[in-house]
Amino acid sequence: MKRILIFFTFLFIIFIIYNYDIFFKSNPVKEIVTEGNSVYLDQKLLNKNLSDLIGTEIYSINLRELKTQLERDPWIKSAQIIIDSPNILVVKIIERKPMFLWNRKQYVDDEGILFKPDELNLKNILIIESSSDNHQFMYKLYKDLKILFSKIDLIINKINKDDDMLIISTSKYKFSVRYSMYQIKIEEFIAVYNQFINSKMTKKGVQNIDLRYPTGFAVQ
């Protein structure tokens, strides 16, 4: 029993010696290193907020609380804080990737999570709107439409669904079609697309294409 006690005492002394800086020295934060690509995040504001920790005793920082504080920023998907002994704080940031603007009120990221930053000012982002369906349903609809329109090299910029009315804005034209008939009507249009682009109608600067007619379509 005595030998065991001596053995554990020896291990404890070794532990204390090895971690002498932690237990007996002051270790103020001298440097904060941020890692992660920031495309949308306000990096200057992040650096300013983190700089307040310079000079703080590094082992007195509540890492969990700091993580929670950082993740309150809508653009930050997750944050990880690591102490690089003796006086460097490493902050790893993973930023949200916005996929589209939903109902002009908030963004949806690549995991389908809704988030709302202070400003919705991203340009050239897909816009999806609906008064009758949720964002998951509408994004699936967008992907189905994207496959259809890729056959004629049209890029979708915006879709809007109001009950059975579906409006699709592409890189060239705006389409109106009933949701209940969209696949059939768009495939009919695709089948005659080459004739359409070589017709006199396109030379007049067609902008709107109405696919709600029982046969054919109307242009404006």
Structural summary, described in words:
The protein is α/β, with parallel strands linked by helices. 34% of the residues lie in helices and 28% in strands. It has eight helices and twelve strands. It has a nine-stranded mixed sheet, with helices on one face. The chain has a three-stranded mixed sheet with strand order 1-3-2, with helices on one face. A hairpin with a 3-residue loop joins strand 9 (165-170) and strand 10 (174-178). The longest helix has 17 residues, at 2-18. It is elongated. The termini are far apart. 14% of the residues are buried. The model has no long low-confidence stretch (mean pLDDT 88).
Helix fraction bin: 25-40%
- Structural class, please? alpha/beta
Mass-distribution shape? elongated
Count of individual beta strands: 12
Topology:
Layout: H1 2-18, H2 20-24, E1 31-35, H3 43-51, H4 63-70, E2 76-84, E3 88-95, E4 98-102, E5 106-109, E6 114-115, E7 126-130, H5 135-150, E8 156-162, E9 165-170, E10 174-178, H6 182-191, H7 193-197, H8 200-203, E11 208-210, E12 218-219
Parallel strand pairs: 1-3, 4-7, 7-8, 10-11
Antiparallel strand pairs: 2-3, 4-5, 5-6, 8-9, 9-10, 11-12
Please give a handful of descriptors for the protein shown.
9-stranded mixed beta sheet; 220 residues; alpha/beta; 12 strands; elongated; 34% helix; 3-stranded mixed beta sheet; 28% strand
Summary, kept brief:
The protein is built from eight helices and twelve strands. The protein is of the alpha/beta class and 220 residues long.
